[in-house]
Amino acid sequence: MSDANRVLIFDTTLRDGEQSPGATMSHAEKLEIANLLDEMGVDIIEAGFPIASEGDFAAVSEIARQTKGATVCGLARANIADIDRCWEAVKHAKSPRIHTFIGTSPLHRQIPNLTMDEMADRIHETVTHARNLCDNVQWSPMDATRTEWDYLCRVIEIAIKAGATTINIPDTVGYTAPRESASLISRLIETVPGAGDVVFATHCHNDLGMATANSLAAVEAGARQIECTINGLGERAGNTALEEVVMAMKTRHDIMPFTTGVDTRKIMHISRRVAAVSGFAVQPNKAIVGKNAFAHESGIHQDGMLKNPENFEIMRPEDVGLAATNLVMGKHSGRAALRSKLNELGYELADNQLADVFVRFKELADRKKEVFDDDLVALMRDASNDP
Ligand code: KIV
Ligand code: ZN
Questions:
Q1: 147: which DSSP letter?
Q2: Where does Mn(2+) bind (predicted)?
Q3: Which of 52, 164, 339, 376 could form a disulfide with 159, with the two C-beta atoms 3.0–4.6 Å apart?
């Protein structure tokens, strides 16, 4: 596999993810998550927004000092004070990055109340300043997917000439769709002078539930950095979920022949830790990391799973850090699953015994949502005590 197909994973759980209302993490929790991200093999950790608060500054500085492998990035608006503060925090890293941005769409241009020319000058000035401090500068035209085409090309060219090394294309309000996401990236790469010298990144929000599809479409069109968060944590409907894009490229490598540096076996642990420290529980049917993502209750599925897991699973649970598939015992379960579960619990039953226990099990399952191992042990005890 050539390096041309290596996709950088930029995790922004600690910045965009933490911006989610109510998801605030403590200093110690941020250090723990950054460490897990580093161990998992993400390429860039966006550790926070240093000028936002003393706490953010302290967290980004310490993450910069502790991180062994990943590049550590901080966010800065398009002004000198933000960029200086960001540099003060990230400069301790082995590999620091400054990420500076400004809203370029007609709506977002009204916020600083700059004309198009004034904004272009501001971009030139701030990216130049960032590049004088740091060799690794990322620039983002916020709300890129609602920015006029000509203006988008113009400001990206300015940022590249001023020294940006990564150009991120944010779909800030989750507005784009896969085909449009792909065409935007490929046209920018073809059109903007100097585009071949920088990495193009995709940063998608999930307002219409298309963040993963839009990110993968952008990669197919030439983007080589995906910005994402664990569990898709993020403002409103969240950001692209790291576990989804990484597992999609691994599982469908036949049609998406891209690689990442992520050790996918660490996904489940970090997902659980992010859920615990952010207070944002993962929905049971969430792709990859939901409680039911590798669980089966219906008799037909359980029987199929026992014969060959590939019948109903496209990924191996071990590949995301789960010990095994979970055959959930409930009213939809069949005899094969009951026998297998009882074998696991140490019971070997003849066919006539199993038939009797199966009737008792179904009665119990009609009363309970889920039948746990302890329930089955009690049921076996009752069955052996009855004459
Ligand atoms: O969604 C967005 O536009 C952002 C930028 C700061 C990159 O998070
Ligand atoms: Zn964002």
A1: S
A2: 16, 203, 205, 239
A3: 164
